[in-house]
Description:
Layout: H1 9-30, H2 37-50, E1 54-58, H3 61-71, E2 79-82, H4 89-96, E3 100-103, H5 115-121, E4 126-129, H6 141-151, E5 156-158, E6 166-168, E7 174-176, E8 183-187, E9 201-205, H7 208-218, E10 222-224, E11 227-228, H8 239-249, H9 252-269, E12 276-277, E13 292-296, H10 301-310, H11 340-348, E14 349-352, H12 360-377
Parallel strand pairs: 2-3, 2-4, 5-8
Antiparallel strand pairs: 1-9, 6-7, 8-9, 10-11, 12-13, 13-14
Helix pairs in contact: 1-8, 2-8, 3-4, 3-7, 9-12, 10-12
Amino acid sequence: MSALPMIDLKTQYKHIESEVLEAMKNVLDSNQYVNGTAVKNFTSHLENYLGAKAVIPCANGTDALQIALMSLGLKPGDEVITTPFTFVSTAEVIALLGLQVRFIDIYPDTFNMNVEQLQEVASPATACILPVHLFGQCCDMESVLNIAGRFNIPVVEDNAQSIGADYHFSDGKKVKSGLLGDIGCTSFYPTKNLGAYGDGGAIFTQNEKLADKIRMICNHGSSQRYYHDEVGVNSRLDSLQAAVLDIKLKHLDTYNQHRADAAERYNQLLADLEHVITPAKSEFSDHVYHQYTIRVTDGLRDELQKKLQEQGIPSGIYYPVPLHLQKAYRKFGYGGGDFPVSEQMSKEVLSLPMHSELKEEDQLVVATAIKNILGELK
């Protein structure tokens, strides 16, 4: 059989091709390639979608995290709490700014921050808490915010994988992910639920003072040309990418619903399969399934992935080595056994094809192959 795509951007593009080409032509005709009308329109529409007072576009999701931390005025050596089971950007920006990473472990069902451990390690010495909404659903943010509030700790959300998800507070209030803490950061990398056709990112906040500072940092620390009040960076979303994102934003809820429908089909197809644990969904967050990630137990994950690949079925391991065991981050003093859940998950997780165009018949092929391969491996 021909190989299945892990993510099908080609088919998604075909559905919006005429809109995209027209929008790109408008940008080219305008000659406004940086901070033009397309960027302003997308920014306004994303603010309305999220219910955000301020959205500040930037060049990519990593920049978004770095700029968010810069805006808080943290000093070298300040402690930032996050988890080691995430993409490297989360810890990378902490290290680049000379801050100190304080890792805590995750839950094995949602892969998100363990708030009991956060309760144990958070203190007046903590400069920032950086939760990661992994694979498409939010951390237990009500608990995170309660803990942060006791010590007046700012919270920066890594929202790169959960844009569009709603968080449900215990009092019934509903808030979009990325607007739960002081600052939210996202990526528009092409494979994201809201993806550009190149790099892009954005920073969200409900704090106007922070928003002004973030805008300055994104623009070389300047609010008036050639006058620089902050040490900043050069990080901008270009107009062509903004034009694409503005079109795809109109479809985001539909894309996310298609992903949720596909996840439910996977859940049914893989139900009660020995050696497979399907992803859990928390009671306080929507799940937009940036990834559909199963756990394969009893040491069978790598062999299963190998045999799937032989049949033309792709899969991904996010992430094979937790950050505390990466060579670049050994300087923070952690070692094997410090975060046993993250280490166990790195040996068990396997993400299956997931995208807004995923067909039921393709999922049946994937699930049947998994069942047959695991049956042979027993």
